[in-house]
Amino acid sequence: MISSMKKLWSKSRSYQRGVFYRNSLVFILLAASIPGFMIGLLVYHFATHQLKDDISALHYEQMNERVQNIDDQLSYLEMGLSNWAFNPTFGYRLQTLDFVYYFRDTYEVTKSLVVMEGSHALINEAELYIDREQPILFKTEYYELNDEATINYYKQILSREKRMYWEQDNRAGRDSIVLLHKIPGESTTPFGVLLVRVDKEKLMNLLKTMTPYNEGTTFLMNKDYQIMLSDSEQQHPLQEMLIEHIRNNEQPTGQFLFDYGEESYSVSYGMFKRLAEDWIYVSASPMTLITSPVITFSKSLLWISGLSLAIALLLAVVVSNTMYSPIQKLLNQIDPERRQAGRKHNEFQYIRDHWLNLSNKSVELEHKLDSMLPMLRNTFLMQLLQGHVGNLTELELERRMRSLYWEVGAHQYTFIHIYLTGLHRIDQQMTASDERLMTFAAYNMAQEMVAASFEQGYALNFHDLSLGIFIIEANERPAAQNQLQQFCERYTNAINELLRLQVSITISRKTDELRKVRNLYMEIERAASYRQFLTQNQLIHMDDLPKEFTFDDIDYPFDTELEILQVMRSGDKEQTLELLKKFVDAGGRQKERYAQQNMLQLLGSIQHMMLQSGINPIKLFHGENLYGQLSQIRDPNKMLRWIRDTVVMPFLAELESRVNVQQQGMMRQVAAFMHEHYSQDISLDQCAEIAGVSSYTLSKWFKQATGVNFIDYLTELRIKKAQELLRTTDMLINDIAQKVGYQQRYFNRIFKKQMGVTPSEYRGAASADQKNSTYSKK
Fold it and tell me: Coiled coil located at which positions (predicted)?
């Protein structure tokens, strides 16, 4: 029968059937065989897995109850010993007391030890060791110790830093679990120790209550997976296998099913948190005797169901060939070459998709372009104004502008800045939301008027009662100055009438280089000192202002500034100082006033980063006028020392003081892991598990320590590594993407979002800079 099924299946595959054929085959197959198969599967599931799960859950629940009882007993024992350690009977006078002469005091100590032995059922024996010229041991009677090995054992106990802890005494004839507390309890220089030895037989009886059956095994281990207490005198092979399984499992507690020989065990394990020690308890109970008859019966049903399924498959192949014949003929008429595609697509869906494919693609692409183009233009213009694409050449900037369907090249560029004033004249009090609505309304009006007045113009919404207008004009048809002024007047009148606000407008100079648009924007910001934000409209032409407002010669190191802010957030002192020197060296190659201007700009960026990190610069620097101090310094080396000592070091000290020792260690561990495994798939939960905290706690500490969230830090790290590889190697971009943990398509999008350019454009710009640098040196 199996041979006949193979022949029929091979024949059916030779017809190049598609998804519809296979779906029909599966449908017939299920219709014919599903009753018997489902019965066998349900019986097997509920009679075996469910039964095992129920037994395992019962075992786990019962064990948890017993564990709580054992934990309470041990906690009561610890609390009792701690109380005895602070008892005046075991105070300072024992260090010098003559126990023979003051026999009543000696009797009080002996009586206290006897009472201590009877205070808890688990205590087998109580001892008191006093370290003095002639060591004394109460057990419970008074002894003078002369045995060097015994004296060394107790001295070793006193030399440890812990004041109270558990220990396993493995000395000859002393195989026992001991709880110790140094005395006096309140002393920083203890001279003795109280010991209680646990009755191992009673403790083992408590542990055995975790096993619901008479068979199985129960044992207790220390954190090094060494058995401290077991229900068998010698270590059983089952115990060795369970220890190895638990050691390889990263979970501190849990339950699982374990097969040993012909038996199946329900194993539950967990931890006792005993002072500074972790004890691991394990309980394994057999289940095979209960489940084996049901499993045999269930497997028989599954075999019968499988046989029924094979017969149904044989019949389904025959029937489906007849059903599929008309569909195959239709597909061959539509597309004779479609046989391979027919395997991958539903035949009827393929017919429909084939008819709609071209028209749908056209509509989809047109819609995507219309919806994404404004956002892409807005993003690029913001990057251009903020200097994030300053590493691109003029040709690269023009190429990017053309990709956004702007005509550039032999063109001039003008930037208009608009600020809304007069809100205080409105009767009702304005909220931040109302201000954004006002700005949005003014932005919509600007868009409409720009489209009607200029061939190429774009409005930008800054969301703070201000907006900008970027105008591109062909050299052969430049807009006259009065044309710009007429536009500003029309816009001013519209704002006055519709929004009842005043407008302060600044018109930049014209430039024929995209790289200088950033300078135009900076000039407009500086020209704000000429504005009078009163109750009247204002119009400022940059051409009418003094020449010192121009920024043609400024070459600001934006990349170095971003790196400085990033490493300061992470608290990396050494790298921060290296980057500061690099920043100052870059400014030192320029004119002195430009170098100082760069340092003033960096100071403002650092203070802005401090505010984002939750540190108030005014409070940190005690209200000192940092800009005034910096403006008095001309020498670059003095600038470096000043910003290092006055700004950076106090911030790093404050940042470090806000993070406790535990958080620092955790953050260093997580950061080291991220730096080592950034090319792999790293998650917040994974790092939280490494640090031993919850993902919520790690996220909160990460934000406090670095000023950015986990994902942003990881993205910056990966992009920084990618930049290094793009600059220093000839690796393919796809290989670099995999090297830093991204797929190429996603890597291109992330890199462009972070850097403002694609990886290939960044590599080209870096290569050009290296060539220029080499040429300059020559």
Answer: none
**Cα separation of 762 and 391, whole Å?**
8
> Residue 561's pLDDT band (boundaries 50, 70, 90)?
confident
Report the interhelical angle of 517-526 vs 347-386 (nearest 10°): 50
Please determine, for residue 244, whether its predicted confidence score (pLDDT) is greater than 70: yes
Predicted local confidence at residue 696, as pLDDT: 72
Nearest Cα residue to 265 out of 47, 59, 45, 43: 59
Strands 538-541, 136-138: pairing kind: unpaired
CA distances from 756 to 387, 426, 632, 748 (A): 10, 41, 36, 11
Around 363, how many Cα atoms within 13 Å sit in the side-chain half-sphere?
Answer: 5
Q: What CA–CA distance (Å, rounded) separates 288 from 50?
A: 14
Cα separation, 441 vs 436, in Å, equals 9
Write phi, then psi, for 650 (nearest 5 degrees): -60, -40
The predicted-structure confidence for 445-493, as pLDDT tens digits, reads as follows 998 999 888 888 899 888 778 889 999 988 766 656 678 888 998 999 9
Q: Which residue has the higher pLDDT, 15 or 286?
A: 286
In sequence order, which ranges of 216-346 are alpha helices (DSSP H)? 237-248, 288-334, 339-342
Interhelix angle 347-386/19-44, nearest 10 degrees: 90
User: Average pLDDT, whole number, for the chain?
Assistant: 77
What single-letter amino acid sits at 281?
A: Y
Beta bridge partners of 176: 169
CA pair distance 518, 514, nearest whole angstrom: 8
How is residue 164 written in tokens? 């109270």
Q: How is 62-127 classified by DSSP, letter by letter? A: HHHHHHHHHHHHHHHHHHHHHHHHTSGGGSGGGGT--TTT-HHHHHHHHHHHHHHHHS-TTEEEEE
pLDDT at 93: 85
DSSP per position, 420-465: EE-GGGSSSPPPHHHHHHHHHHHHHHHHHHHHHH-SEEEEEE-SSS
The 10 Å CB-count burial string (b at 16+, else e) for 533-562 is eeeebbebbbeebeeeebbeebebbbbbbb
| Residue 465 and residue 435 in contact, taking contact as beta carbons nearer than 8 Å | yes
The pLDDT tens digits for 420-434 are 887 666 555 666 677
Task: Express each pLDDT in 398-413 by its tens digit.
Answer: 888 888 888 888 888 9
Q: Angle 125-126-132 (CA atoms, 0-180°, nearest 5)?
A: 135
- The amino acid that residue 149 corresponds to is A
What's the pLDDT at 234?
Answer: 73
User: What CA–CA distances, in Å, run from 66 to 59, 198, 276?
Assistant: 11, 18, 22
Distance CA 487, CA 499 (A): 18
How far apart are alpha carbons 140 and 128 in whole angstroms? 8
Enter the tokens of residue 568.
């300061």
CA atoms within 13 A on the CB side of 226: 4
What pLDDT digit, counting tens, does each position of 639-674 carry?
888 988 988 888 888 877 765 656 767 777 888 888
- Mean pLDDT value across residues 360-381: 77
